Amino acid sequence: MKYVLVTGGVVSGLGKGVTASSIGVVLKACGLRVTSIKIDPYLNTDAGTMSPFEHGEVFVLDDGGEVDLDLGNYERFLDIKLTRDNNITTGKIYQSVLDKERRGDYLGKTVQVVPHITDAIQEWIERVAMIPVDGKEGPADICVIELGGTIGDIESMPFIEALGQFSYRVGAGNFCLVHVSLVPVLNVVGEQKTKPTQHSVRGLRGLGLTPNILACRSTMALEENVKEKLSQFCHVPSANIITLYDVSNIWHIPLLLRDQKAHEAILKVLNLTGVNRYPMLEEWTRRAKTCDMLRNPVRIAMVGKYTGLSDSYLSVLKALLHASIACCRKLVVEWVPAADLEDTTAKESPDVYEAAWNLLKGADGVLVPGGFGDRGVQGKILAAKYARENRIPFFGICLGLQIAVIEYARSVLGLHDANSTEFNPNTKNPCVVFMPEGSKTHMGATMRLGSRRTYFQVTDCKSAKLYGNVKYVDERHRHRYEVNPDMVSELEAAGLSFVGKDESGQRMEILELPSHPYFVGVQFHPEFKSRPGKPSALFLGFIAAACGQLEAVMQNPSHVSNATAITSPINGMAKVYQNGNTTKPANGSLNGNGFLHSNGNGVHM
Predict the structure, then answer these.
(1) How far is CA 56 from CA 51, 199, 381, 503, 531, in A?
(2) Rounded to two decimals, what is the model's pTM?
(3) 406 close to 381: Cβ distance less than 8 angstroms
(4) In a designed cystine with 323, which of 87, 134, 400, 540 is the match (CB 3.0 to 4.6 A)?
(5) Could you count the other beta carbons within 10 Å of the beta carbon of residue 236?
(6) Mean pLDDT score, 164-179
(7) Could you check whether the bond before residue 350 is cis, i.e. omega within 30 degrees of 0?
(8) Strand pairing partners for 147?
(9) Looking at residue 116, what DSSP letter applies?
């Protein structure tokens, strides 16, 4: 087993996750099998109880693991399925060591950070690296490890010590360290400054780790004299200093690594001289260029609670982007804070209220993502009502499905106090109820989590057609409330159709409004399994409905999702081809992430 460790220095948020994922993409394109591990030095056992404002979205794996959002990047970039153990936290390590101590496994020894914690970290890495994640038998060839945080953080010290020991144990030819650092440009001076990276590398070397490769984040490519200076003071060959400068979309990052021969440097360090030296990234290149060429917009109103931080909905945004590219449209996300749509806001801040409603009314589609808590719920209900009554494509995910049910019960059934017991435990018409097996005393890992099977009850429905007319689908869940099965017959008699249920028939998984162009709600989270070039079926249907392509997509969803290039719009519609031909795009530019804020500023991805 070969190991590539990615660390970060100077500041946080440099994009270590995307860098680690891109390294995996390039190595995979060289013909190697790749797996990934993310180390998070926080004490939480997992990310399940952390606020999206605190740490971004919680990514859910097939096995129910609630993990860091970077594992979502690994799965999307590498098209693999990771396990909960691929996310190592301080909490998990200490818990495992303390469990051993309580059992008496240490035979009376004094349990200490060194060697017991550091040994546990190394054993965890070696064990998890052997788990196949690409659907093939046997372990991968290379494990890419990302160490969260910044070099010098106190909480990272046990991991750095363990990784220093680990690099010595496995040997120089089996361990490659890539250090991601910042090379800022001060406006006053106008030159690229190397001092922060020098200090970061000095600190790293002082902790027992020597970088083999420097990946420098900067606005522009590094100048040659800057590379030479970094090489001299950081003791890294100039050929092993890579620039990760700002690009139009993150799919260009693997191409940057390839063009600067980062893969050759890594393969040389790992003594993999017999491996194909030129990564096969033709499809990846086409996708990156296609994303840059898109001009015809599709506007999606994201009505949520955490709209102040786009990382809270990272997988949803990525799934929308995958689908919009398949439909040859430039994604424009209109961020609509749900609370701004409510009557209270109209009284307190009429300008904010009006702006929110203008964004909603100007959108081609309305999406209500998952979430917890009652803040903004009324605004989400109003958004669902607007989309339903005005025949605007609507997609509700998890809480979004529950919102759609509550709105329908209130507006159509006339049950004005209909609600979820999450928001009103004493409601007389509980449309959404707490799951029987849930826990009200413990928050972590007590929800319905991971991959579960949904069986289609209706074959002639939009969802079944989009999934390819299969009998069932496996999607990932994360919820502790569900539609009240006692009210299903009443809701269906009024026109709502629950087209997908679990194996018991008691859990509602997919709802549709047959009389509506596209009104779909799901209890699961399809965004977690969307991939570049293979968009989630329901996201694809949603975007297709928003730009008038739904009928064509439902007839042959695989044709559209496998498309690799675009031609010019015809009568406002974009036609999809598979032959790789493209036409020259109209003037204009796409932001750095393939989609826009309503004000034209790029959303951080």
Answers:
(1) 7, 29, 24, 32, 19
(2) 0.88
(3) yes
(4) 540
(5) 21
(6) 94
(7) no
(8) 39
(9) I
| Residue position matching structure tokens 């057609």 | 465
Residues with catalytic annotation? 398, 525, 527
- Rounded to an integer, what distance in angstroms lies between the CA atom of residue 473 and that of residue 475? 6
Which residues are within 8 A (CB) of 536 and not within 5 positions of it... i.e. 6 or more apart?
Answer: 319, 322, 323, 526, 527, 529, 530
Q: Give the span between the Cα atoms of 499 and 565, in whole angstroms.
A: 33
| Phi, psi at 428, each rounded to 5° | -80, -15
Residue pair 47/68 in contact (Cβ under 8 Å)? The answer is: yes
Query: Could you write out the DSSP letters of every residue in 368-394?
Result: E----SSTTHHHHHHHHHHHHHTT--E
SS3 (DSSP) at 2: strand
Q: What angle do CA 276, 280, 283 make, to 5 degrees?
A: 170
Contacts of 337 (CB under 8 A, 6+ apart): 304, 305, 307, 308, 356, 376, 379
Is 238 exposed, middle or buried (CB count within 10 Å of its CB: 0-12, 13-18, 19+)?
Answer: middle
Dist CA 118 CA 150 (whole Å): 19
Locus of tokens 């360090």:
269
Q: Is 127 buried (19+), middle (13-18) or exposed (0-12) by CB count in 10 A?
A: exposed
Q: Which of 247, 314, 199 is nearest to 19 (CA)?
A: 247
For the chain, the C-alpha Rg in angstroms (whole number) is 25
Rounded to whole angstroms, how far apart are CA atoms 261 and 57? Answer: 33
Q: Which two tokens stand for residue 403?
A: 């919102």
∠ CA 291-572-390 to the nearest 5 degrees? 100
Contact 345, 411 (CB under 8 A): no
Q: Which of 374, 295, 348 is nearest to 547 (CA)?
A: 295
Check residue 152 and give left, alpha or beta (phi > 0: left; psi -120 to 50: alpha). Answer: left
How confident is the model at residue 535, as a pLDDT?
Answer: 95
What does the alpha-carbon distance between residue 418 and residue 424 come to, in Å, rounded to a whole number?
Answer: 9
Segment 196-244, tens digit of pLDDT: 999 999 999 999 999 999 999 999 999 999 999 999 999 999 999 999 9
> What does the pLDDT look like over 288-321, one tens digit per residue?
999 999 999 999 999 988 766 778 899 999 999 9
**Six token digits for residue 38:** 């993310």
Within 8 A by CB and 6+ apart from 569, the residues are: 295, 296, 328
Question: Could you tell me the strand order of the sheet in which 508-512 lies?
Answer: 472-479, 448-456, 497-501, 508-512, 519-522, 394-397, 365-368, 297-304, 330-337, 595-596
- Classify strands 330-337 and 394-397 as parallel, antiparallel or unpaired: unpaired
The DSSP annotation for 461-524 comes to: SHHHHHTTS-SEEEEEEEESEEE-GGGHHHHHHTT-EEEEE-TTS-SEEEEE-TTSSSEEEESS
**120 touches 98 (CB < 8 A):** no
Helix (H, G, I), strand (E, B) or coil at 338: helix
**Tally of CA atoms within 13 A in the half-sphere of 536 that contains its CB:** 26
Tokens of 319: 């799934």
Burial class (CB in 10 A: 0-12, 13-18, 19+), 424: middle
DSSP, res 185: B
| 175 beta partners | 3
Mean pLDDT throughout 573-580?
A: 33
